[in-house]
Amino acid sequence: MPSFKKASEKRAAVIKALSHPSRLLVAEALMKGEMCVCDLKDLVGSDMSTVSKHLTLMREAGVLNCEKRGLNIYYSLACDCLGEFLRCVDKLACGGKKTTTCC
After folding, report:
1. What are the φ and ψ backbone dihedral angles of 74, each rounded to 5 degrees?
2. Percent of the chain residues past pLDDT 70, beyond the cut
């Protein structure tokens, strides 16, 4: 039973890391490929401090990878299957109906 509890806690941390509209926006943008933190800041439309906190939370949950190149930090998704997960979330959000944003 303890392994189920630990697995549930890890799943909850990942879902929590995606549970903000700005973090979902970042995840969706990164499905197309890696992005520089400065571009993610512009995409989200928040100040650098706020975006940095979002990215840190996502990285610590294992959702994102980051790589420093020179003065820039580039982020990418740690798992390509996140897009499939988000499509399932879209389906649930649409009440199970198929639409252009649902699977």
Report:
1. -110, 135
2. 91
